[in-house]
Amino acid sequence: MVNILLDGLNIESQWIYKELKSYIKKDYMVTVIPFSFRDNQVKNSDEWNTLYGKMDGKIYRKIVRGFSAYDIPEYNISFINYFIDTKESAQQKIKRANIIYFTGGLPDRLMDRIKEFDLYDIIMEHNEVVMGYSAGALVQLEEYHLSPDEDYPDFKYCKGFPFLSDFYVEFHYKSTSLQNAAINHVLAERRKKVYAVEPDSGAILIENGDIHLIGNVQLFEMIKEQKQRCRLSKQL
Q: Virtual CA dihedral for 219, 221, 226, 229, nearest 10 degrees?
């Protein structure tokens, strides 16, 4: 199985394209699960279409453009529409996919809607490629943390899919005091590595447990001799 954790949608960019081209095949079927939208941003089908609709959805266009760089045609890419798809049609889209793709936004709401559509077990049966950006990457971790921001005022841990359990990830990393405090919080409490991915320029690829860092990703881990400190090493 392959897990691809992205910070943004730009999989066609030169810095990442050569790293992913072996995993994104031109004959693959892609199912996009855009369930991470904010409740106050998407309240009906029309508002959903402004982001994910085929005619004028701005996220739709970016996702299709990204996969077109790998020669995947638009007709091989399907989106699960929260307002139109049934549980049965959503499940069928997942079953025929080689790539499951989670969008960014709110990871906890993504998981809520996955369970609402009874998709959790079917997704767990998938054994090819799972990928997503930001929130869509976080939910691939059995447990992930959320640093305080405009959506989440307080630090907290949340449950995702148990695909990955050996590390945590801080996305959109700009070395802010809030982000660094959150990273140190995780290091002190969970005693696991934390990867910090810089905006639109870093990614993590995991193939059958082997971790490959792409672009601008930094590693934080505990110093064995001094448990209350962390060591930072830059991954080039």
A: 60
Per-residue pLDDT tens for 131-190? 999 999 999 999 999 999 999 999 999 999 999 999 999 999 999 999 999 999 999 999
pLDDT at 222: 85
Read off the tokens for 229: 């400190």
Q: Is the four-CA dihedral 57, 60, 64, 65 of positive or negative sign?
A: positive
Reading the block at residue 65, the tokens are 């453009």
Contact 148, 174 (CB under 8 A): no
What span, in angstroms and rounded, lies between the C-alpha atoms of 197 and 219? 9
* Band (235; pLDDT cuts 50, 70, 90): very low
CA atoms within 13 A on the CB side of 24: 27
Task: Tell me the C-alpha distance between 1 and 42, whole Å.
Answer: 32
Enumerate the β-bridge partners of residue 230: 222
